[in-house]
Write a structure and sequence with these properties.
The chain contains eight helices and no strands. It has 173 residues and is mainly alpha-helical. Helix 2 runs antiparallel to helix 3. The longest helix has 25 residues. It is extended and about 60 Å long. The model has no long low-confidence stretch (mean pLDDT 82).
Length: 173
């Protein structure tokens, strides 16, 4: 087994275990930390696939930005009061139906993978390495030439949302 396969299985196992721990922990801060681990493992898979742009977006945007917002919300919301008010155990029937549907989908994928149908459907030749263009450079050039106005509008909207969140948090404190 080569180093690429070992690193893929490591990152995949880390992502799956972290994702399971996200939904099974009772403490919201612990869940947020395991979500960071799952997102970083996904970023590692992107880097292994030579998708540098997706790697850096995953790390900066999701791990750096979105998770900071999640932690702020966790800290601002009184989770003890919210846990006493909401009754999660009353949705067991919906959870059972969703579990059966997900199990059926997983069974179908495994069944079709072993029967050879998937290989016939997805038999595509790999792209030659010489034909691949540097994706990060092309995305950066198009982002700052063709899409400069939407990029700036999105950044101003994010800034306004951040200022609004700070103002609303100061009123509650």
């Amino acid at each position: 087994m080569n180093i690429d396969a070992i690193s893929f299985y490591f990152f995949a196992a880390l992502a799956v275990v972290s994702a399971i721990l996200v939904v099974t922990r009772r403490n919201a801060v612990h869940s947020a930390i395991f979500l960071v681990a799952a997102l970083l493992a996904t970023a590692g898979i992107f880097l292994q696939l030579h998708a540098e742009f997706l790697f850096i977006v995953q790390v900066i945007l999701y791990v750096g930005g979105i998770m900071v917002l999640f932690v702020f919300v966790i800290m601002l919301v009184n989770l003890d009061v919210a846990a006493r008010q909401m009754q999660f155990n009353r949705m067991w029937f919906v959870a059972l139906c969703l579990t059966i549907a997900l199990g059926a989908q997983v069974y179908m994928v495994i069944h079709y993978a072993h029967s050879g149908v998937m290989e016939a459907l997805f038999r595509l030749p790999p792209a030659p390495a010489a034909a691949l263009e540097p994706n990060s450079e092309l995305i950066g050039v198009s982002l700052f030439t063709e899409y400069m106005l939407p990029f700036e509008i999105a950044s101003v909207m994010l800034l306004v949302a951040m200022i609004g969140a700070v103002v609303m948090a100061k009123r509650k404190v």
